[in-house]
Amino acid sequence: MLFNSIDFLVFFAFVITVSVIIKNRNFSYVFLVAVSYFFFYFSNNFLISLLIFSTVLDFYLAKEIWSTDSKSKKKKLLLISIIGNLGLLGFFKYADFGISQFNDLFKLIGLNEIPLLEIVLPVGISFYTFQTLGYTIDVYRGQLAPAKSFKEFALFVAFFPQLVAGPILRASNFLPQIREKFSQLDTKNYLKQILIQRTNLKIGLTLMSFGFFKKMFFADNIAP
């Protein structure tokens, strides 16, 4: 689902409308995670399992790292996160490249070539891999407490506006923001707090228009 497509505009309008209507914090979390997963599934189909795997892996590893006092155990848990995340990323990005390099060598010595795996690179895998890994490293260093709930962490990893185009989010920046926004659901002035101000609307539309222009006229034409 491309950002400059009609499908995305309809999808985005639906998300905004429902988000304004929902006034329950837990439902809001679940809804945004669900639509983010749908957005990813729309682009990757079965490869959404990789996103869920990375989310589950680092959520529980970070909690274990935070709760243990053993430095050696912390290092082992962090190593599991590094191997798990970078292993998946390396396989999907470089497996066929590695096979092709070996095939060049096999040609020189007269051996049969290895068939390419023809792996489809999952959309956004670099972004969510380094996001979850960075989160676990921050927890390991004691710079960040683990996410309060799985749905909170899942939203941080899968948040659809940045999932396929970046930037790579830091949990220390993102988690406090969503906690603050969702805490407003419990206030009486919630509707006043979410009303779009004219100045912000003009700035937002200007930035979006400029971004679409660069995407359609420069990026799409320069890309090979």
Query: If you compute it from the alpha carbons, what radius of gyration comes out, rounded to the nearest whole angstrom?
Result: 21 Å
Distance linking N and C termini: 20 Å
Order of helices and strands: HHHHHHHHHH
Uncertain runs: none
Q: Could you say which overall geometry the principal axes of the C-alpha atoms support? A: globular
Helices and strands: which structural class?
mainly alpha
Number of strands: 0
What is the number of domains?
1
Major beta sheet summary: none
Q: What fraction of residues sit in β-strands?
A: under 5%
Task: Classify the helix fraction into a percent range.
Answer: over 70%
- What does the average pLDDT come to? 83
Membrane topology: Multi-pass membrane protein
GO cellular component, one term: membrane
GO molecular function: acyltransferase activity
InterPro entries: MB_O-acyltransferase, MBOAT_fam
